[in-house]
Amino acid sequence: MNIENKQGKYENALRYEIFTKEEYGFAKSKIKKAEWIFDIGWHIWLFSQWCRKLNSNTQIHYFEPVKEFYNKAKNNIWNDKNIILNNFWMSSHTGDWTLLLNHEKTMQSSKYTSFLNPKWIEIGVNFKTLKDYLDLANINKIDVLKLDIEWMEFEVFESRWKFEWSKINNLIAEIHLLNSDMESQWNLILPKIRLIFWDTQIINSSYDKRIFLIRCQKIS
Q1: Quick one: fold of 22-88+129-217?
Q2: For the whole prediction, is pTM greater than 0.85?
Q3: What are 133-170's pLDDT values in tens digits?
Q4: What is the pLDDT of residues 84-108, one digit of tens each?
Q5: Which candidate among 25, 71, 158, 204 keeps its CA 20 to 30 Å from the CA of 183?
Q6: SS3 95
Q7: Could you tell me how far CA 174 lies from the centroid of its own chain?
Q8: What is the sign, positive or negative, of the torsion defined by CA atoms of 174, 177, 208, 45?
Q9: Residue ranges in the chain assigned as alpha helix (H)
């Protein structure tokens, strides 16, 4: 099977998970009322497409560091003024970094490698801190923040403790515990999350026990 066929296979699997299986169905009520949605880990626009079907008035901030996927999304969006395009990801620092791009499983590209990302090429991309972005855009709240950036989530969590978490009302994050260091980090982060959000729910993956979603919310 060539690379394009493999890409298509995994993209179809993602479409099934999001649109048919509705992996994020637990967040429907929040998305339908959301004014601001941050989709960090946009990939090929599937989660945001699903959000737009639920709420055509919401403003979505899109974050994707790979130029190829960014341009693909840009061509699909046309002139939708309610979608803000950003050709970078979030991290603990602002600057240029190397991303390990997996052309077969593009959704598993990351700054790091593991059993999920065994084949890759290095490309240069840009990262920013969430605080820098919010300050520059003068945004005071995020109704729903979805974070899926392939075991870089710990860097974002680390940077977020440095600014007011009150800006985030609902958080959906994919968590990867791929080694003992990540497990230790998560054991330190989870109690902090539970102090900030009044309700947290862990949703286990049906594919691998080392990967799961966490849903956090402050408001009813």
Answers
A1: Rossmann fold (3.40.50)
A2: yes
A3: 988 888 889 999 999 888 788 888 876 655 667 789 99
A4: 989 998 888 888 988 888 877 777 7
A5: 25
A6: strand
A7: 7
A8: positive
A9: 3-15, 28-33, 46-54, 67-77, 130-137, 153-160, 180-196
